[in-house]
Structures are given as C-alpha cells and as structure tokens.
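Hey,
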Amino acid sequence: MSSSGPVPTSPTPDRPTAAAGGGGGTGPLSLAGLSVTEPFPPARPLPAAYDRYHPDVAPERAVVAGLVDGIDWAGLTWPAVMEELIALGRTDVPLARLSEGHVDALRILAQADAVPMPGALYGVWASRSARTGISATERGDTYELDGTLRFASGSGLLDRSLVPVWLDDDRHVLLDLDVTGLPVDPTVWRTAAMTPSRTYEIRVDHVVVPRSAQRGPEGFYLGRPGFQAGGAGVAACWVGGAARVLDVLLAFHARPNPAQQVRLGQIRADLVAAAAVVRSGGRALTRPDVDTNAVALEVRTVVAEAVHRVLASARMLTGPTGLALDDAVSHAIPDLELYVLQHNVDAALSGLGAGLPAR
C-alpha cells in the first residue's frame, strides 16, 4: 500500500481520478485537481539535498531563505499573500512556519514605517505562554531586557526577530533585535513534530539594547490594525499543510479501495472549504471598513476545525503503517497537528458566538 517513491510537489495534468470514475479503486489516483472549484498553488521545490534531520542549521537556513527571497512581501495584497502561504504550507509545514514568521515581520515593519535589515531572516517572538515573556527596564537611551522567550521558532537560525517587550503589565514596545547571540535551550522541545522549526526557549538576562531598536510607538504591536489579520495568514499555512497531507496520502494509497475513497473524499471536501474561507478572508482584508479581528477569528476557526477533521481522517487512512514507517506521512500529519493546536478552538467559538447580534 505504501509508496517508496518521491511525493509529487505539484499537480499533474488534469485527468480523471479513480474516485471520480466511481469504480472500486482499480485505477491510480492522480494529484490532479485537489479542488476543481479553484486550483491549489503547487508546493515550492526544495533542494534534493535538504534533510530535516541534519543537525547543522546552515543548510536549513539557506532553504528558508530560498523560499522567501525575491518576493516583496510587504507590498503584496492580502489575497496574494494567502496564495503564497498556501503554497509554502503545501511544501513543508515547519519550513512554512519559519517562512510565515519572516513574512509577518516584514509586513509589521512596513506598518511601522521601518526598514528591515538587508539580507536578514526575520521572525516574530511574541509568546507570553504560562506568564513568560520579556520585561524591559528603561535606562536612559537603552532598555534592559530580562525574561524567557517560549515558542521562539527559528532559535539559532534567524538573524533577527521582532519582540514585544513589557514595561509593565499594560505597556509594551516592539524591538527589532539581533538574536544570533542569544542562548538557546533546545531540551524543552520533547516531540519529533515540527522539529525543523527549531521552536525552542531563550533566556534573556540583563541584555541591554539601544532605544533605537524600537519600532513604532509604545503599544504599536498589539494596537496596529493588522495585528489580528496576521493570524489569517497562519490559517493559510494550515490549509497548505492540509493539502500536503492529502498529497502524501495519495502517494501512500496509490490504489485506494472504496472505503478509503470515502475518507479521501471527506478530506477533499474539508480542504476545499478551508481554502475557500482563507481566500474569502484575504479579499475581505482588503476592504478599508472591515473588522479585521472578526475576519481573522472566522477564518482561523473555520480552517482549524476543517484541519482537525482532515487529520482525523488521515490517521484512519494511514493507520500504524503510515505513521510509523512512511517518512512523508509520519512528518506531514504530526507537524500539522501540532501547528494547528496553537488555535484554541473552544475559546474562538465562544468569541464567535458572543459576537452575534442580539435579537
């Protein structure tokens, strides 16, 4: 049942699939038309030598740089950004996580009327999970930084990161920091999922940076109009990751039986719906009068729910053989599963319900 050959990274020319013919799974299933409604962008090509297990950070950094270089990310419209992020997610979820952080950082800097460091690979480290985060003490023309950065994706790989630091419980400023010399603790990451994202923990003790590292006014990071909109971009990566899951499933089940076709059909339906919401959200974000927070909440929640269904069906399709023995399957499913868990679906659904108009 499993396929030892490479997983195709782009759709093949359109031709009927076994499922479309209504037969009993006797013909090979094509990657053509994951969606007939609107085609999915193909995955980006990766270097043949790329090895997610390689301990050296330099080759991976070069791969990420290759994925994001040559595009004016700050100048793209939201619909164009969504298409690019879907393609990155379909390429590889951990690499998409790192690429999306760079994209987000460049768009934030543009909002702040700031210029990124030429040639630098950026991220955004803003987690305050379990009361972590960075405090800042004002000392003349400098800030003294202390604290712990949790979920710092790209630790040891990125050149720079945008980091909101807290002057007190309610006041923050955004800093553009050189992060190449910060100490990294990789031992906190206990799962094989998302390992290439290098999402580790960084401890900052009495680090002094000039006030010139500040980007935007006090309160800019959380107060800017595009803060929640960036979350819709993450959802586009999830959609791409779900397309990646379907890609590897089609390679794993080259000749699916009728029962497996049911699961594949469910995945296709969920994937088409999720992509439609992301694209609709991208168009909505171009309207000047739109509530960007509401758009992002709707997009992220609908996509997250669809992706959870995709993953449940995918696990049923692969069983222990795929998850334990197939290299592509064993990465695509756990990587996406962990990535999408950053969205608290219950809290989001509560917010959507509370936002309905009273009658």
